[in-house]
Amino acid sequence: MSAPRQGFTAPTTKDNLYESALASSRSEIRDRIESWLHTPAVLVDRHLDVIAANRLAATLSESFRHGVNLARFAFLDPNVTRSEACWDDTAQQLAAMLRDSLDQHKPDIAFLSIVGELAATSWDFSDAWAETQQANESGSATFLDTPVGDVSLEYRLTRVPQNLDDTLILFRTVDDRSRELLDQLVSIRQAARPSGL
């Protein structure tokens, strides 16, 4: 057997146990949020990659798809509207979430790649990254151009118990109008859902 390459750290039993527990936690959360027909929910990891999102959340935004990085999508996707009043709050919150996560975890290649790419290609990110405030645990977000028009919702960031990597983002309506629009989205999703699923 050849010796490990210099700089390579073999995973320990503790690492393997945590990875197994993390996979189990994510699977359980994925199943749970998919059963929430009236509550948009998104699970993201420490790099703000979407791990899971239920169907209602995916109807609100193209960013809520498995594997999409929320920061890259917000700051780099050419289809994102950045001239609306809600954009500054969105930019500040996403940059703060990424910065807080970097403070809580050791920097890795994925972190360096995301921050480096965004800093080099997005003035909006550079400005937001330079701020020092922590991410808000709750706030509001407006989703533009959904199938029922613009939808304003409140959100809350929830840490997953015994899981240091992931954050669950839960959305709820703010008034009768947003409740009506969200109900319309639910109806659209149910009408589009194949029979028996």
In short:
This protein has 197 residues and is an alpha+beta fold. The protein has a single domain, classed as 2-Layer Sandwich (Beta-Lactamase), CATH 3.30.450.180. 46% of the residues lie in helices and 18% in strands.
Tell me what the structure shows.
- The protein has 197 residues and is α+β, with helices and mostly antiparallel strands.
- It has one domain (41-192): Beta-Lactamase (2-Layer Sandwich), CATH 3.30.450.180.
- Helix content is 46%, strand content 18%.
- It contains 7 helices and 5 strands, in the order αββαααααβββα.
- The chain has helices at residues 13-34, 55-60, 70-76, 87-104, 109-121, 123-129, 176-192, and strands at residues 41-44, 50-53, 138-146, 149-159, 167-173.
- A 5-stranded antiparallel sheet has the order 2-1-5-4-3.
- The longest helix has 22 residues, at 13-34.
- Mean pLDDT is 88; it is low at 1-8.
Number of helices, where a helix is a run of at least 4 consecutive DSSP H or I residues: 7
Supply Rg: 18 Å
How do the strands line up in the largest sheet? Answer: 2-1-5-4-3
Classify the secondary structure makeup into a structural class.
alpha+beta
Q: Tell me the strand percentage band.
A: 15-25%
H/E element order: HEEHHHHHEEEH
Helix content: 40-55%
Features:
Beta-Lactamase; 46% helix; five-stranded antiparallel sheet; 7 helices; alpha+beta; disordered N terminus; 197 residues
Give the topology:
Layout lengths: L12 H22 L6 E4 L5 E4 L1 H6 L9 H7 L10 H18 L4 H13 L1 H7 L8 E9 L2 E11 L7 E7 L2 H17 L5
